[in-house]
Amino acid sequence: MSVVTRFAPSPTGFLHIGGARTALFNWLYARGRGGKMLLRIEDTDRERSTEPAIAAIIDGLTWLGLDWDGDTVFQFARAARHREVAEQLLAAGRAYRCYASQEELAAMREEARREGRTKLYDGRWRDRAASEAPEGVAPVIRLRAPLTGETVVNDEVQGRVVWQNENLDDLVLLRSDGTPTYMLAVVVDDHDMGVTHVIRGDDHLTNAARQTQIYQALDWAVPSMAHIPLIHGADGAKLSKRHGALGVDAYRALGYLPIALRNYLVRLGWSHGDQEIFSTEEMVKAFDLAQIGRGASRFDFAKLESLNGHYIRQTGDVELTKILEDSLPFLQGGPEMAAKLTPERRAQLIAAMPGLKERAKTLVDLLTSAHFLFADRPIPLDEKAASLLTPDARDVLVAATAALSATPDWQTAPLEAAVRAVAETRGIKLGAVAQPLRAALTGRATSPGIFDVLTVLGREESLGRLQDASAR
Question: What positions carry the motif 'HIGH' region (predicted)?
Fold first, then answer.
């Protein structure tokens, strides 16, 4: 049997980080078995489904590197097929028309709550003749669910899960206006798309029982199901915005690499021994549903940052520069930097990258550290840099500028030798010379190694900035 999975988000907002993990698990399971992952946009909620949300989902998946097979399926466009199946169940006697009014339904719900019953509908139209139908009332179509016995889902993560049929309602398949319900649409779409494995959050576990009953009423094979625990915050509470429950687009804007986010998400709830860092190929080869735990995983920003820093350091300088350049439209301050990224500055950025990426945890860190490359003369000093340029420091700066001007070979070793000579002549530590140089050259109190800065900026720009600072 060829494996077919699907990712089926509702386009009512951004691609949530939990949704991204669900998509990743579906993608890995299918790719690791030579199967297909399909994409279905469940846009039946017409009031909340928006084109920008659809675009955000597709863009988020694309940025994460999660491709899908075939055309994207839009659930709303299949409404006629869903109605056809509801009518098919009606004709077979496995569904029925229900004429209960909203007032009657409200009274049933209230009575069930009083008696502590989970079953809210009392089945009053299950066996009544159509001739008894009140005039002017448009009926819904309900599933004629089994009243006794059990509905069982042998879940690949949760194990054997059992529901007593006496506690399950005759769920609505078709509303009174003829629109299909989510429960029916999902079953019909999964069947028609040939889905063999449904991998989704465990908040859908109760839905699995109801959907299984629809499959059985249609005599269709029930796909294998795997309900994965939700992601919680570091405090163990359900993940929310205060924990960082952001859209994938926000993680992009925060400067995370797609490969790092994929690697982090795959380890949220899935384990493979003690291994933490996976190439994409390793993930595809190793991923299986059996290693997904039943307990909720906890989102840890510090761990994500650490992993992101690892991938930044492991990425080649030219490739990382290209990644940073492509990300500039999404990063804070990035568009301004993009406007200044001339071929000369791009070359400088590549040359500076070894020092820039050493301490960076995100692309935002890289951009911040690379600020000195994009600064226009006379470069502005931040508060800490300005505090470093005391009268004594300015005196040292003048001496260092003279020594550097006299250095014919503008390379790291000769430049370092010249600065060290200034420190030794004055009987001060190297840092007492390097810090004023750093402030004058970068406008910041922290930067990559000062000799790397001098080399990357070049003789003319470096001396010009030093002279500007001396003349302030």
Answer: 9-19
